[in-house]
Hints:
By secondary structure, the chain is an alpha/beta fold. The chain has ten helices and nine strands. The strands form two sheets. Strands 3-2-1-7-8-9 form a six-stranded parallel β-sheet, sandwiched between helices. Strands 5-4-6 form a three-stranded antiparallel β-sheet. It is globular and about 50 Å long. Adenosine-5-diphosphoribose (APR) binds next to α1.
Amino acid sequence: MKIVVLTGAGVSAESGLGTFRDEDGLWTQYALEDVATPEGFARDPALVHDFYNARRQNCLSSAPNPAHFALATLQKSKAHEVVLVTQNVDDLHERAGSLDVVHMHGRLLGALCADCDARWDVAAAMAVDDPCPSCAAPASRPDVVWFGEMPYHMDEIMADLETCDLFAAIGTSGTVYPAAGFVDLARQAGAHTIEINPDPAGGGFDAVIAGPATTAVPDWVKSLVG
Ligand code: APR
Ligand code: ZN
């Protein structure tokens, strides 16, 4: 069976990374227009770097949780073909042992040159005038997809959705497109669709497992790999 898994901030919530739209979420502390749009970065790049530097530190000081490990087990079990797509920019799936994680919104631990499109890994803080290691332009930015920008790997994701047998959305509010529309594409392709969330978004899934990721995901994986 081919399974496409889509994760959102909820899969990392119990690792202490918080979410965006829960009551104390990031978008209640920052205006997303200021820190997650190209216009915000042009207006005040230092503020945007501060925002992502804080999230990068938070990410580096957190640890994967049982949901991340369970999804890595599902991938490595080879019982099914598994495509793991995440909206998250943290590296907790990788640190739990997942391979080929499809980061459709980019990566906190990645940097991008706005001038020459070079990409490189960053673990420390970034600053406005950091020179690009390829062209030396002071044009580096977090390699994160902002609102109004095209998510990464969309062709690959669409092809996987059109050929999957099972689609599982884990820990996402289903409010941001194109990810919010993946369940419809999967269903049109004939896949069974499930949502795992303590507070299900109710986006027309065939089944819902209402529970926190750290218990619901390991149970779900056990049901698939025994
Ligand atoms: N386990 C599973 N899900 C949880 C948990 C948990 N312990 N705690 C909260 N959730 C769920 C919430 O019920 C909610 O549905 O996680 C979801 C978090 O929703 P959002 O904060 O909107 O995060 P997400 O859906 O990933 O946002 C999508 O929006 O801001 C952009 O680019 C950003 O990738 C992000 C995108
Ligand atoms: Zn460059």
